[in-house]
């Protein structure tokens, strides 16, 4: 029975390369001279520290641009965490790099596929989904349906088997 997996994975090495590019650009830019702006990644979080909110917003934009240049979708970055005040007048923000499909998003995708009356079965397996059906055309219709859902998190369709 043909099947494929729906996953959400980030190439973390490319994110590291993008962070290195942002650091180089911050070192060279005139408007960042004398400022104490840092970007550090630990596991799936990026800690950004800046002198004030406008510099923090510039760092966010630089990060998005450099990640996109490295062929990684910028929607993998979750900027929803609250900006914190740090020592002195500095600000700190934690950006999360999304990995895997959250349980509520997985349930939303499964419900949408079932409501579309496609002839496929969807199973949640941890942080990924397994879609199986009798025909390859049904699986391709399921991929098109999920792509048309306009989800905030980027998804990949891998491990296609006949």
Short description:
By secondary structure, the protein is of the alpha+beta class.
The coarse silhouette is elongated
- The H-and-E topology, N to C, reads as EHEEHEEEHEEHE
Number of domains: 2
DSSP summary: helix tally: 4
Kindly state the number of beta strands: 9
Q: Give the low-confidence spans.
A: none
Give the proportion of residues in helices: 25-40%
- The proportion of strand residues reads 25-35%
Report how far apart the termini are.
7 Å
Q: Round the Cα radius of gyration to an integer and report it.
A: 20 Å
CATH topology of the largest domain: Alpha-Beta Plaits
The CATH superfamily of the largest domain turns out to be YajQ-like, domain 2
Average pLDDT reading: 90
What class, by secondary structure content? alpha+beta
Main sheet characteristics: 5 strands, antiparallel
CATH first level of the largest domain: Alpha Beta
What's the SSE blueprint?
Layout: E1 3-7, H1 12-28, E2 38-42, E3 45-50, H2 53-69, E4 77-78, E5 84-85, E6 91-97, H3 103-115, E7 120-125, E8 128-133, H4 136-147, E9 156-161
Antiparallel strand pairs: 1-8, 1-9, 2-3, 3-6, 4-6, 5-6, 7-8
Helix pairs in contact: 1-2
Describe this structure in words.
By secondary structure, the protein is an alpha+beta fold. It has two domains: 3-8 and 100-161, Alpha-Beta Plaits, CATH 3.30.70.860; 12-97, Alpha-Beta Plaits (2-Layer Sandwich). Helix content is 36%, strand content 28%. Strand 5 (84-85) and strand 6 form a beta hairpin. The protein starts with a strand and ends with a strand.
């Amino acid at each position: 029975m043909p099947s494929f997996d729906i996953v959400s994975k980030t190439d973390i090495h490319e994110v590291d390369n993008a962070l290195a590019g942002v650091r180089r650009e911050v070192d060279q830019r005139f408007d960042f001279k004398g400022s104490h702006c840092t970007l550090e990644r630990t596991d799936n979080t990026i800690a950004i520290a800046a002198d004030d909110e406008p510099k923090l917003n510039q760092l966010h934009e630089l990060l998005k641009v450099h990640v996109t240049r490295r062929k990684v979708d910028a929607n993998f970055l979750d900027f929803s965490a609250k900006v914190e005040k740090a020592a002195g007048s500095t600000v700190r923000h934690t950006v999360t790099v999304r990995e895997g499909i959250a349980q509520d998003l997985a349930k939303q995708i499964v419900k949408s596929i079932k409501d579309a009356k496609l002839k496929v079965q969807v199973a949640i397996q941890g942080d990924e989904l397994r879609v199986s059906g009798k025909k390859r055309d049904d699986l391709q219709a399921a991929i098109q349906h999920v792509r048309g859902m306009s989800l905030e998190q980027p998804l990949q369709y891998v491990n296609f088997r006949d």
